[in-house]
């Protein structure tokens, strides 16, 4: 029995062995199956070929021509294209056609926005000394109704101008302020007037600042913000359930523009003292006086709130590697009148850049990232079209859009902006960079203001943004009038089409480098100096407060804020060190670094305030109690025993601003184990 069992085991083993050998028959692997039959090595995975940078710039300059620019300037010139009008829609359709002809798949973004327009019947009126002046110009979003009070000349209506009036012991409560246009926006003038309880504001173009006829009307808006003020922080898409909300930037007092001729008639009738240094105006046969309590003036504003359908138009050239990352190039399409410098030049450049980039792609250029071309409507009402788009896609845009380049108002004079690679429009042998000199940042750079079309991209959405322009020592005088024509722009610049081409080269080469290079050329270390400057100002006020005997109990210390500044400084330096030590041909490594760079602007948006109440959440460039500038101003108010000062509120401001900077530094540091969190 034992021998039989052993024999059966051996037979079973042999049968199993033979069956296993058949199952082990080898089959071709995936790699072998895909290999060429002739035995040659398998070809490497194809990568996107990239032209040399010098070849790209040469191709770009050759395709962006003055002749094509001149044709587009002619094609997109229009005498009437106010937002939502048939003229505006006709330009939008023309843009759609152009984008399609360039091989793009364009699309539109439709919004229903509420804007304030001039009265449909009748006019806005100003009455002084029993004479009524009917004004055709208007300021959108003004409070409507009537106001009456004593006239008071307040120069440009800046904060320092009103402070001077306060120093003269002049009570501005209920007064009708007469201010000159310029220096700051109408919205800022009205907000400043409201802060001293003025009853109304009249804004006029003084001949010393504006070289046009005295009967020219002015147009503008007085919303201290951007976008549709009746849908704050959310988009005005169709069928959106609009809540009963409005922007905190809407004024509560009437505001109206008046002609220079009307201002002259009022100024001649004013009494009071002559303000020293404020009599430099150009009103003929007028002695500039402040006005007395008996100089009563009445203002009647009958603007009408209407709903308009507007369209933003888009085209895109998709990237070949990071198609989901894009730079946006945008331009305003609408205007109060012809708007040649305001909108025609920018729209024409937008079209020409889209054509040039498309032709470059057809000739072998393969951008790594995408380029979106955007034409905005309702820009004259405060970047309404652009802001509504940002509000509609806020959660994704600041993760995907890594830069915005504005083409609005790029040509209004001859003083240039900086670029090493762009020739001077006046001397082809020199670059704009060499013309700027060694101290170029002081020469050509200035802080971005709320009136800048790129401002909502930077301060609301946290997208790195730039706007630029050729200008003159004096501001272009025809913005906000129907005199912004080709003829008047030609009178201010030499060879408009050459200057427009130069502006196109600046915008185009910025965009090309952003979509071509492995790394985004955005220097995060620059913010170190900006933050350090703000922190130094805050520290100065704290030292002053500690030196006052009345603030012996004041125990606020700078250690936390200084530590956050140090963390950001180290993180930005370490990032640059990482870049220098990294293999920039490693695609994944570059993407990780680019993500850290893109996050800086977004991380400087305060997460502790509501976008609805404080839409411009950027702590360095925004506005509101969350900013570092507001923190400094609050310190000053407490030091001066102002009623607005509150130490407990100040401590909250201090802590939240500190942690916003620290959080930005943590994100910039990269991985969680590299974060500097020793506060």
Automatic annotation (TrEMBL):
Domain Transferrin receptor-like dimerisation, first and last residues per copy: 557-668
PA domain ranges (all copies): 150-211
PTM (free text): Stearoylated.
Entry membrane topology: Single-pass type II membrane protein
Leader peptide range in chain numbering: 1-16
CDD domains per the UniProt record, alphabetical: M28_TfR
InterPro entries the record matches: PA_dom_sf, PA_domain, Peptidase_M28, Peptidase_M28B, TFR-like_dimer_dom, TFR-like_dimer_dom_sf
Annotated compartments: Cell membrane; Melanosome
Domain of life from the UniProt record: Eukaryota
Organism encoding this protein: Pygocentrus nattereri
Domain Peptidase M28: 312-491
SUPFAM superfamilies, A to Z: PA domain (SSF52025), Transferrin receptor-like dimerisation domain (SSF47672), Zn-dependent exopeptidases (SSF53187)
Any one GO BP annotation for this protein: receptor internalization
Keyword vocabulary terms for this entry: Cell membrane, Endocytosis, Glycoprotein, Lipoprotein, Membrane, Palmitate, Receptor, Signal
GO molecular function terms noted in the UniProt entry: transferrin receptor activity
Name of the protein in its database record: Transferrin receptor protein 1
């Amino acid at each position: 029995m034992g021998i039989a069992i052993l024999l059966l085991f051996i037979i079973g083993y042999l049968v199993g062995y033979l069956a296993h050998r058949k199952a082990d028959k080898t089959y071709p692997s995936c790699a072998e199956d895909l290999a060429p039959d002739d035995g040659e090595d398998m070809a490497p995975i194809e990568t996107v070929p990239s032209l040399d940078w010098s070849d790209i710039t040469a191709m770009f300059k050759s395709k962006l021509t003055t002749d094509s620019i001149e044709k587009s300037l002619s094609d997109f010139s229009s005498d009437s294209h106010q937002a939502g009008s048939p003229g505006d829609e006709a330009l939008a359709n023309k843009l759609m056609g152009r984008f399609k002809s360039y091989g793009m798949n364009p699309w539109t973004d439709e919004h229903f926005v509420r804007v304030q327009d001039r009265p449909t019947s009748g006019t806005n009126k100003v009455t002084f000394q029993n004479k009524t002046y009917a004004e055709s110009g208007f300021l959108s979003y003004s409070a409507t109704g009537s106001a009456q009070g004593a006239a008071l000349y307040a120069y440009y209506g800046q904060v320092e101008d009103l402070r001077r009036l306060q120093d003269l012991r002049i009570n501005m409560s209920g007064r009708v302020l007469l201010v000159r246009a310029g220096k700051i926006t109408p919205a800022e003038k009205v907000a400043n007037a409201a802060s001293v309880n003025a009853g109304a504001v009249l804004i006029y173009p003084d001949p010393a600042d504006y070289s046009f006829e005295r009967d020219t009307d002015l147009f503008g808006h007085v919303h201290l913000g951007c976008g549709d003020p009746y849908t704050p922080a959310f988009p005005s898409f169709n069928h959106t359930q609009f809540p009963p909300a409005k922007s905190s930037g809407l004024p509560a007092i009437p505001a109206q523009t008046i002609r220079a001729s009307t201002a002259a008639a009022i100024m001649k009738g004013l009494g009071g003292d002559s303000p020293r240094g404020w009599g430099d105006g150009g009103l003929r046969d007028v002695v500039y006086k402040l006005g007395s309590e008996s100089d009563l003036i009445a203002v009647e504003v009958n603007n009408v709130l209407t709903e308009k359908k507007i369209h933003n138009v888009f085209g895109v050239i998709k990237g070949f590697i990071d198609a989901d990352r894009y730079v946006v190039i945008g331009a305003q399409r609408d205007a109060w009148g012809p708007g040649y410098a305001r909108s025609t030049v920018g729209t024409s450049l937008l079209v020409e850049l889209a054509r040039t980039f498309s032709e470059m792609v057809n000739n072998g250029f393969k951008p790594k990232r995408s380029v979106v071309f955007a034409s905005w409507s309702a820009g004259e009402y405060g970047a309404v079209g652009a802001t509504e788009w940002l509000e509609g896609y806020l959660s994704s845009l600041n993760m995907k859009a890594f830069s915005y380049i504005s083409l609005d108002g790029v040509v209004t004079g001859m003083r240039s902006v900086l670029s090493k690679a762009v020739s001077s429009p006046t001397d082809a042998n020199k670059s704009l960079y060499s013309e700027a000199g060694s101290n170029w940042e002081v020469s050509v750079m200035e802080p971005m203001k709320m009136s800048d079309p790129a401002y909502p991209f930077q301060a609301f959405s946290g997208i790195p943004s730039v706007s630029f322009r050729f200008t003159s020592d004096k501001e272009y005088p025809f913005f906000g009038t129907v005199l912004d024509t080709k003829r008047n722009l030609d009178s201010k610049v030499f060879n408009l089409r050459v200057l427009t081409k130069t502006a196109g080269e600046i915008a185009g080469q910025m965009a090309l480098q952003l979509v071509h290079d492995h790394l985004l050329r955005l220097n995060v270390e620059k913010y170190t100096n900006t933050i350090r400057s703000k922190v130094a100002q805050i520290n100065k006020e704290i030292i002053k407060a500690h030196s006052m005997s009345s603030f012996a109990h004041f125990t606020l210390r700078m250690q936390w804020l200084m530590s956050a500044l140090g963390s950001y400084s180290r993180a930005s330096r370490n990032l640059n060190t990482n870049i220098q030590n990294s293999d920039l041909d490693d695609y994944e490594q570059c993407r990780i670094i680019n993500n850290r760079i893109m996050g800086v602007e977004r991380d400087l948006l305060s997460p502790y305030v509501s976008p609805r109440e404080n839409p411009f959440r950027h702590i360095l460039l925004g506005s509101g109690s969350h900013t570092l500038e507001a923190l400094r101003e609050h310190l000053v108010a407490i030091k001066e025993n102002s009623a607005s000062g509150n130490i407990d509120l100040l401590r909250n401001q201090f802590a939240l601003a500190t942690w916003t900077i620290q959080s930005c530094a943590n994100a910039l540091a990269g991985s969680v184990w590299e974060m500097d969190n020793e506060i």
